[in-house]
Write a structure and sequence with these properties.
Largest sheet of chain B: none
Largest interface: A-B, 41 and 52 residues
Oligomer: heterotrimer
CATH superfamily of the largest domain in chain C: P-loop containing nucleotide triphosphate hydrolases
Number of strands of chain C: 10
Strand order of the largest sheet of chain C: 6-7-8-3-9-10
Radius of gyration of chain B: 24 Å
Chains: A mainly alpha (about 300), B mainly alpha (about 325), C alpha/beta (about 280)
Helix content of chain B: over 70%
Radius of gyration of chain C: 20 Å
Number of domains of chain C: 2
Shape of chain C: globular
Helix content of chain C: 40-55%
Largest sheet of chain C: 6 strands, mixed
Distance between the termini of chain C: 33 Å
Chain lengths: ~300, ~325, ~280
């Protein structure tokens, strides 16, 4: 009897099929353009060894800095020129996407997981739990994020693990707030009250009922977060705290490019452009997802 | 009203304590020994121990915290391990530069954002509307880090008309009575100096201000749109007020409050952004100092800087709360 | 006979979204200093008439025929700029909801003197003097305090009085009162109605009184026009229409009004046959 009622109520729950979501997303131009570029980056990152024309670490000091192919004085084979150590800029940019994307995907996933967990807890439990977590969020947000990330990485030591960890530890607050607000919204919905009345365990309600309805908002936020993660990694590279100086990163190239500005502006321009386009793409994707999922949610 | 202010002050105090505790513990449990970074090779063990005791780093965690808190109460923020000067003095010296930069960026962002929002509202039915929207969306996606380098590329390489670093041209050989170069030169009417300081501040101000301007445009435009469809605007339009006056005299007042709250939050992000922007432009503010402090594990300096940033954040939040109440006549008499 | 202030002839308005006819061949005439009630249920199109006269029709509707002659000039063909000026000088609106019709962030003085300073070119002091006089006319005690106040500090009735004062400020030839008492308490309604009537006769202004309540309209209007489904069902002198209604709908409407002197009589909704007849009439070309 209870099972039957539960099944009935499950039908009442405002769940949406995954296909509805997917369909809405793919129809939005922002999603297509942004997502398309990210896909292109993934291809670059995965296929770097085959796609990059030269070895990113191979130096040619005698050659020095040469401009990109369409300018005078260019060295054939180096489409975007070379840096002061004669390394091919294009190849380094392509390899740089590996670090950027790895950090973007993993760090945002972690930040989302941590933030959502705490957000669900705070929004569901209310009372002291909520007060403590909210206070924690406030304290956390009183630290300048860049400074905190530099601090964390400087303290733990450079390396891709610490960068990812630092981003996750700093940016979870963003997810926590949103998930908390949405959870509080959902918690007062009829289907949740009904589920509680039946006696479903809290964990079950949180995970099986509320989380799926929070998911769309989260997905859009994750995309935004990935853009932020890429920037933070670039900043850390710029400050010299990223992965080892051998591995090419966009931030590292930007730092180098800043130093060598008058010797070769392309050393700065190339990674900057890639960074710019990547952030733009993640933002576009996030915006598109948010807009596409909104009307579906409202039904 | 006073009860609300006191409540907020209380919350702010708790947050500050939290900030202090977190940074304190974080610095001491983390690997990396500041003393080790300072000593010269070949120093004896006794020397190292003496140095450690001198900075109070040999005591237990709790004791260190209490000592620090006690000194803080006296206004003593300790001595910088890497720069060998009193932290308070260092902060006092460099904070004004950052404040000038942050406020210049804020003023710029409010003016630009406000202008474009009003323009967008007036042209909302015309063909330019989607163009304005798209450009706004584009600007929203670009963080200060990228703006800074774009500006460096443009004004450093392609049109080198602006200085790329520092706060003032050293060859001018000027001295200041206060650390507020911009304000002082303006009030003292030393216009050539003022111009030089402004030129140095232009790019970092743009880098910090453009992202904020984009957000202000987005939010203000939305609020104005909501206000413009209200009945009182309709009535005013019937009385013969021009669209421009409708936006400025009727709608703007009601659109300010929701915009303020978000602007305040974003301004705190701007403050955080000074860390990297100052570094990029070698601008001598607290942001720039902070990076070196962290890399050098300069505990007292890091703690002092964190407190300053934390206090600024809290101040901004409180100011926004107060301004929101002031802007809404209903809340004022409430 | 003097020419009417406002002559609407065969006005037709459609919705651009679903092509529904909002107004069909509506004709209406308001003489100088006359109070003319426009009565109808929700959706009958009465508000649309007001909006059409004020040049406030939303983008979702379109005029497909007819003219609106104000003092001989067709408002529908007047270019925007001069139309705006004409309306701001000669036609005013008393809006329905005093809550939303006043800017919550501006003091009353500014909102009351806007028109005076803009259109009549009065300076602040002169405008203030006129504003005080107007507030006295609408029986607001302590007019100085009211001028300094914000809208949320005033009661609903007081706000509506302020709006009425604002409407008469420029001595317009015509005022559109769009259900001015609907948002008010019943006790306040009567006062406001009487006030509008008194102001109207004192200033000699023509008033179009839009309402869904025929009983209310009958009390203060000289003439009345009834609308249903965008068409004029009946029109004539208010006293006559009430006493001997020509159309069964009018009769049904009168009987549907709750009668306070016969509390046990119950409510009588419009009978089905009347609705059917109206529909049938609507089908006819």
């Amino acid at each position: 009897m209870v099972e039957a009622v539960a099944l009935d109520l499950r039908g009442e729950a405002p769940g949406h099929t995954r296909w509805e979501f997917a369909g809405a997303c793919l129809r939005d131009p922002k999603v297509v353009v942004g997502g398309g570029f990210i896909l292109f980056l993934v291809v670059l990152a995965l296929g770097a060894p085959w796609l990059a024309p030269k070895d990113p670490l191979e130096q040619d000091i005698i050659l020095g800095a040469t401009p990109p192919a369409w300018l005078a004085g260019a060295e054939p084979g180096h489409w975007l020129g070379t840096d002061d150590l004669g390394r091919d800029v294009l190849s380094r940019v392509i390899y740089g996407s590996r670090v950027a994307l790895t950090v973007a995907f993993v760090a945002s996933a972690l930040a989302a997981a941590l933030g959502s967990m705490l957000g669900l807890l705070a929004g569901w439990r209310r009372g002291w739990t909520d007060a403590t977590i909210s206070r924690l969020v406030e304290i956390w947000m009183a630290f300048p994020p860049v400074l905190l990330s530099i601090l964390l990485v400087a303290v733990v030591g450079p390396g891709i693990g610490s960068i990812i960890g630092a981003i996750a530890i700093i940016d979870w607050t963003r997810f926590c707030r949103v998930v908390r607000a949405e959870t509080m919204n959902q918690a007062s919905a009829d289907y949740v009250i009904a589920a509680r009345a039946i006696g479903f365990s809290q964990t079950r309600i949180l995970i099986r009922e509320i989380l799926p309805n929070v998911a769309p908002v989260l997905i859009a936020l994750v995309s935004l977060e990935m853009g932020i993660a890429v920037i933070v990694e670039a900043i850390l590279s710029f400050v010299g705290l990223s992965v080892s100086s051998d591995t090419p990163t966009w931030g590292g190239m930007i730092a180098q490019g800043r130093q060598l500005l008058h010797q070769g502006w392309w050393i700065l321009a190339a990674p900057l452009t890639m960074l710019f386009l990547t952030v733009l793409a993640f933002n576009l994707l996030g915006e598109g997802l948010r807009r596409a999922l909104d009307p579906v949610m409202r039904r | 009203m006073t009860k609300a202010i006191l409540h907020r002050l209380g919350m702010a105090a708790i947050t500050m304590v939290g900030v202090a505790v977190v940074i304190f513990v974080l610095l001491r449990v983390a690997p990396g020994d500041p003393i080790a970074m300072m000593i010269s090779p070949g120093a004896s063990v006794a020397d190292v121990a003496a140095l450690r005791a001198h900075y109070g780093l040999d005591a237990g965690l709790l004791q260190q915290f209490l000592v620090w808190a006690r000194d803080l109460g006296r206004g003593d923020l300790g001595t910088s391990i890497s720069l060998h000067r009193r932290v308070l003095g260092l902060l006092a010296e460099r904070l004004p530069a950052t404040l000038e930069l942050a406020f210049a960026a804020l003023v710029f962002a409010v003016l630009l954002g406000g202008l474009i929002a009003v323009f967008a509202t007036l042209t909302s039915q015309s063909k330019i509307a989607p163009v304005v929207d798209t450009i706004n969306g584009l600007f929203l996606a670009v963080p200060d880090f990228i703006w800074a380098f774009l500006l460096v590329l443009v004004f450093g390489v392609f049109a080198p008309v602006l200085p790329l670093s520092g706060r003032i041209d050293p060859s001018l050989g000027v001295t200041f009575a206060t650390p507020f170069y911009l304000l002082e030169s303006l009030f003292a009417l030393r216009l050539r100096v003022f111009l030089d300081v402004s030129r140095h501040m232009l790019m970092p101000t743009l880098a910090l201000g453009l992202p904020l301007a984009a957000i202000i445009t987005r939010v203000l435009k939305e609020s104005l749109r909501e206000a413009m469809v209200q009945d009182y605007v309709l009535l005013a339009r019937l009385k013969g007020k021009s669209e421009l006056r409708l936006v400025l005299e009727e709608a703007l007042r009601n659109a300010v409050a929701p915009t303020l709250a978000l602007t305040g939050v974003q301004f705190t992000f701007l403050l955080g952004g000074t860390v990297i922007v100052e570094r990029i432009f070698s601008y001598p503010g607290i942001g720039n100092m902070a990076i070196d402090a962290v890399i050098n594990r300069d505990l007292p300096l890091i703690q002092g800087l964190t407190l300053v940033f934390g206090a600024l954040f809290i101040l901004v939040n409180m100011s926004v709360d107060l301004l929101v109440v002031a802007a809404n006549p209903r809340l004022r008499h409430g | 006979m003097t020419a009417p202030i406002l002559a609407i002839s065969r006005l037709s308005v459609v919705s651009t979204r679903d092509r529904a006819l909002i107004l069909r061949d509506v004709s209406l005439s308001v003489g100088r200093g006359e109070t003319h009630g426009v009565v109808g249920e929700s959706g009958a199109g009465k508000s649309t008439i007001g909006k059409a006269v004020l040049g406030m029709l939303p983008r979702t509707v379109r005029v497909t025929g007819g003219e609106i002659r104000f003092q001989g000039q067709d408002l529908l063909t007047t270019p925007q700029a001069s139309l705006r000026r004409l309306i701001s000088e000669k036609i005013a609106l008393i809006p329905q909801d005093p809550m939303t019709a006043l800017n919550p962030s501006r003091r009353i003085e500014g909102q009351l003197t806007d028109g005076l300073r803009l259109t009549r070119g009065l300076d602040a002091r002169a405008a203030r003097a006129v504003a005080l006089r107007l507030l006295n006319e609408v029986y607001i005690r302590e007019p100085e305090r009211v001028l300094r106040s914000f809208p949320h500090e005033l009661s609903g009735g007081m706000r509506q009085r302020v709006l009425i004062a604002a409407a008469f400020a420029l001595e317009p030839a015509l005022i559109i009162a769009d259900e001015p008492t609907t948002a008010l308490d019943v006790t306040v309604q009567k006062q406001i109605l009487r006030l509008i009537r008194n102001m109207q006769s004192a200033h000699g202004t023509a008033v179009i009184f839009i309402s869904h309540d025929l009983g209310v309209v009958a009390q203060i209007c000289d003439f009345v026009t009834l609308l249903f489904g965008g068409r004029v069902i009946e029109s004539g002198a208010a006293a006559q229409v009430v006493e001997s209604p020509g159309h069964p709908y009018t009769r049904a409407l009168l009987e549907a009004c709750p009668r306070y002197d016969r509390p046990d009589a119950g409510l009588r909704p419009i009978p089905q046959e009347v609705i059917a007849q109206l529909r049938a009439e609507g089908q006819a070309p």
